[in-house]
Amino acid sequence: MATETLTLGKALNAGLRRALENDPKVVIMGEDVGKLGGVFRITDGLQKDFGDQRVIDTPLAESGIIGTAVGLAIRGYRPVCEIQFDGFVYPAYDQIVSQVAKMHYRSRGKLNIPIVIRIPFGGGIGAVEHHSESPEAYFAHTAGLKVVSCASPQDAYVMIQQAIASEDPVVFLEPKRRYWEKGPVDLDAPLDGAYPLHSARVARTGTDVTVLAYGPMVRTCLDAATAAAEDGRQLEVIDLRSVSPLDLSSAYESVRRTGRCVVVHEAPGNLGLGAEIAARVTEECFYSLESPVLRVTGFDTPYPAARVEEEYLPDLDRVLDAVDRTFGW
Amino acid sequence: MGDPELVQLLTPEGDRIESAVGPDGTEYRVDFTDEEYRGLYRDLVLVRKLDAEATALQRQGELGLWASLLGQEAAQVGSGRALRTQDMAFPTYREHGVLYCRGIDPIMPLSLFRGVDQGGWDPNEFKFNMYTIVIGAQTLHATGYAMGVNIDGRTGSDDGEAVIAYFGDGATSQGDVNEAFVWAGVFNAPLVFFCQNNQYAISQPLEKQTRIPLYQRAAGFGFPGVRVDGNDVLASYAVTRTALDNARHGQGPSLIEAYTYRMGAHTTSDDPTRYRIASEVESWQAKDPIARMKAFLVKQQLADDTFFAEVDEQARREAVDLRERVLAMPDPEPVSMFDHVYPNGSPLLDQQRAQFSRYMESFEGSAH
């Protein structure tokens, strides 16, 4: 089998399949995940092969999906819940922040809730409202949850398995507009010794500006780096991979070399991940900085109508504009 | 045979009703030995005494809050004793009587309300989950757990497993509870929804939550519902035992509405004189669950004054013991707040714990 070229969506499917094979306690649950294979087909074919008690089509209620997953977890299962779209997670918000996140703590470690909550997130697919949101900050702000996002097919394949194997509850954010992008996937990659789930990784080395991103914006930033290189600027792009906890060790090391840092995410800027990252980079790299840490983010509006989302979303030009501005101090 | 709208096996005057029939024709009866009748009485008295002691401890500043079960002892002891060893319970924050029946040290909820921890017992060891304060959230947990029982193939026989979800009349307005009803029906979950209708959600009376009797809601979700006299420990036991056994045999969920009354305040922070009249409370006082059980034992000559005195003495001793242990309860070490946030830990918390420890150490030797 070894290495195949897969889309990010197919890589997730392969990772879920392997998790179901490796652990009989893994169950997948959500709206339309069974017979249909999910609206994005991420669970395609899994119910056929593993049965409707392990790939469970649920009634249409998000709080019910997460709440029953909590009960299954107490029973010893490892539920992998699909929330159909980012904007539909909010009915489950209490179950996620008050129940999933706190149960291990409240029980002083007697209960583990090893749930994975998969959420296709972010914009860029021309969708109607509530289908393009980036809710990661809500969850990253909640103690007891871990939040990750994959940016490549290889990471999608490995990280979903790592999230399922983890005893921590993990919100797993899937960059829906990257579902169809292809890349090499080592299907035999062992989980033991795999790159850690909560570690950032340098996606492209550079010397002039450090650019931090996760999920769908990693591709955007890599494209920006290619463009910048044509103008003679070398961007170092770091894929944060884990939104909570944040691993900024490679970012600190990088900023100490470059003196400049730009954080990019689709979510609105106000109180977003960029604010936390900027504060920490400033604390750690104060004497190395040549300019303030700049943010390139969605605006603090509701996610707009699809015909203007290209202007709402950070893109290559806005990333380069921020890179330019770091040289203005 | 009595009122099909209310299953009752023991009248407020302490007279036994041989059997009662529920709205779907199910016949309910109990067959206890004399010793078992006395045991139920003992449970009721002990649970009420420990609850009163907790209220007193709160009034003396030893607990931050207490949610008293006063008036609901029969619903809790009856349903709690109906559970078999293998059955799992998901409580609210008022199920001290069920907790007692599950064999958990009654001090456990006091540590929660004292602010020493957030629930100290092992849910899997005692088959009794942690208290849940967000209204109705636990009904979904119970449903998921019951789905797991099904996946495990643990129904369909006498030693099958059943699950019980406790909640109140106010909770029936919550989305989670209604979602739990839908889920349990769709997945044929081995689950008993046990609603203690104590007539009030803090200040709001039942008519603010529903236009129909609560047990009738079950019909709309496709499973049986029954209303039981929640101040009758025998009927509460009979109805719950039947529902649990149906569930463990694969017959799916059902709803029990235990019709009772919250004799005290919602919690020690509440003042019920602002929203209900004394005559209403008095009318329920006449239906007291312990008084009727005592009247029954006396009338049937199942117990004498020596027995009642011995039970009272045991209750007094256990209450004193509870008080002494609460007062001796140490506060947790501040640094322990960082423990158990994540099973696998977190570098951010490691850093904060270290910073906090250094900060605390900086006070060592100072007067502050």
TrEMBL record, chain A:
It comes from the Bacteria. InterPro entries: THDP-binding, Transketo_C/PFOR_II, Transketolase-like_Pyr-bd, Transketolase_C. Residues 6-181 form the Transketolase-like pyrimidine-binding domain. Its cofactor is thiamine diphosphate. SUPFAM superfamilies: Thiamin diphosphate-binding fold (THDP-binding), TK C-terminal domain-like. Keywords: Oxidoreductase, Thiamine pyrophosphate. This is Alpha-ketoacid dehydrogenase subunit beta. It comes from Micromonospora echinofusca.
